[in-house]
């Protein structure tokens, strides 16, 4: 396997990228000058050095000398609410909508429908710890913000079952995004108005 083929294989693992697109990326890089390639290599190297996971919500953020990100460190946010999202891009979409001021937990993706060990796919144990901690600080509602896809809906159901076992007997509501998100919709691609409606009609 030559360099072009090896790099194509790497790009194929990027979300939503097929073999043809992956190869186009490789040929695009071949047309760039040396400075462009050097800058790309430098930024990719810095990515792992400068970006870390928040100890509380598990989102990626730029190192700031603390273990938690700016959102989790913001004491003005609503501590009675916790939203569970699949990925960082989903969190960013919610934040951009400006309709939610609680805290988050990034579960880390979706659970395949036939998966027999969901805890190996997403951060279920981390979610358990986060919810247990939040309940001590007045948590009243957990919103599960999943994509309206088969895997997304399956993930919501698995998370709901897990949360029900943690919150049993406590005054904590478990809700999901409501009408507004169309079937087949990935949360990250939803516009601000759609997210507003989904949050407003959660249940």
Write the layout of secondary structure elements.
Blueprint lengths: L2 H10 L6 H12 L3 H17 E3 L6 E3 L7 H4 L4 E8 L2 H10 L4 E5 L17 H12 L5 E5 L4 H18 L5 E4 L15 H9 L3
Helix pairs in contact: 1-2, 5-8, 6-7
Please describe what this structure looks like.
With 203 residues, the chain is of the alpha/beta class. The chain has two domains: 3-52, Helicase, Ruva Protein, domain 3; 67-200, Dna Topoisomerase Vi A Subunit, Chain: A, domain 2. It has helices spanning 3-12, 19-30, 34-50, 70-73, 88-97, 124-135, 150-167, 192-200; strands spanning 51-53, 60-62, 78-85, 102-106, 141-145, 173-176. The strands form two sheets. It has a four-stranded parallel sheet with strand order 4-3-5-6. Strands 1-2 form a two-stranded antiparallel sheet. Helix 7 (150-167) links the parallel strand 5 and strand 6. Helix 1 packs across helix 2, helix 5 packs across helix 8 (192-200) and helix 6 crosses helix 7. The protein is globular and about 60 Å long. The mean pLDDT is 89.
Keywords:
Dna Topoisomerase Vi A Subunit, Chain: A, domain 2, 2 domains, globular, Helicase, Ruva Protein, domain 3, single chain, 45% helix, alpha/beta, 203 residues, two-stranded antiparallel ribbon
């Amino acid at each position: 396997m030559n360099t072009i083929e090896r790099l194509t294989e790497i790009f194929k693992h990027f979300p939503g990228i097929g073999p043809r697109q992956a190869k186009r990326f490789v040929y695009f890089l071949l047309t760039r000058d040396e400075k462009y390639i050097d800058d790309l290599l430098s930024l990719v190297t810095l990515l792992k050095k400068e970006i870390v996971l928040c100890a509380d919500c598990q989102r990626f953020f730029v190192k700031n000398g603390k273990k938690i990100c700016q959102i989790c460190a913001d004491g003005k946010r609503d501590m009675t609410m916790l939203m569970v999202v699949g990925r960082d891009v989903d969190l960013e979409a919610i934040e951009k909508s400006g309709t939610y001021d609680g805290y988050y937990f990034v579960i880390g993706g979706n659970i395949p429908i036939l998966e027999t060990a969901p805890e190996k796919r997403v951060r279920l144990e981390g979610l358990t710890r986060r919810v247990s901690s939040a309940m001590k600080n007045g948590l009243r509602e957990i919103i599960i913000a999943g994509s309206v896809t088969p895997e997304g809906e399956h993930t919501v159901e698995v998370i709901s079952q897990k949360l029900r076992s943690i919150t049993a007997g406590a005054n904590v509501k478990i809700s999901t995004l409501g009408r507004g998100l169309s079937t087949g919709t990935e949360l990250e691609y939803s516009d601000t108005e759609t997210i507003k409606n989904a949050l407003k009609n959660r249940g």
